[in-house]
Amino acid sequence: xxxxxxxxxxxxxxxxxxxxxxIAKMEVGDFxxxxxLIRCRETGDGMLIDAAAEPGRILELIGKQPISVIxxxxxxxxxxxxxEEVVRATGATVVAGREDAGALPVEARPVDGGDRVTVGxxxxxxxxxxxxxxxxxxxxxxxxxxxxxxxxxxxxxxTWKDPERFTQLYTDxxxxxxxxxDDETWVYPGHGKDTTLGAERPALPEWKARGW
Length: 212
Hints:
Layout (H helix, E strand, L loop, with lengths): L13 E4 L3 E8 L4 E8 L5 E4 L5 H8 L6 E4 L10 H8 L2 E5 L11 E3 L4 E4 L2 E7 L8 E5 L2 E5 L2 E2 L2 E2 L6 H16 L7 E4 L5 E2 H4 L3 H7 L2
Parallel strand pairs: 4-5, 5-6, 6-7, 11-14
Antiparallel strand pairs: 1-2, 2-3, 3-4, 8-9, 9-10, 10-11, 12-13, 14-15
Helix pairs in contact: 1-2
């Protein structure tokens, strides 16, 4: 089956198989949150992105293979509602952006833009994106970027009509994602459907002009 990223509440995960990793996407909770499980194909080690809700379903997705790290993309509670239970069950280390790490209900290792988070024999680059929250982060694996609530199909994340925060988020997303990566780069957001940078790039001037 071809990966689409189209998942639904209570439905199965959609799985993408790449050369070195697999990516499983599943919707959890009442707010359409996406949780992502990345596995190193060589070692079987796993990384979870956003233990958002429904810990039982997340643990079922993880299965019997280990996960060593859970990345929380930002401090909003709908992205870590299952975090404590998943940590207790797996013993995984929690990672979050430096400015948001202290707001989580468990101890988290703070990371900065440019840091690397390892899963098995590969790693993903941390990209710091300010504006939705002070410490929001995205994770980049060549050709693939997990953006939390900072970038969605149709626009950047919510900045609550604050012009300064919007300008900061828009600028970070343009300079740190769109200016660096090509149009084929696949975007995995914190809620809803996936997209690509190429699908969104033509609308950047419109986003800037409307201010959200």
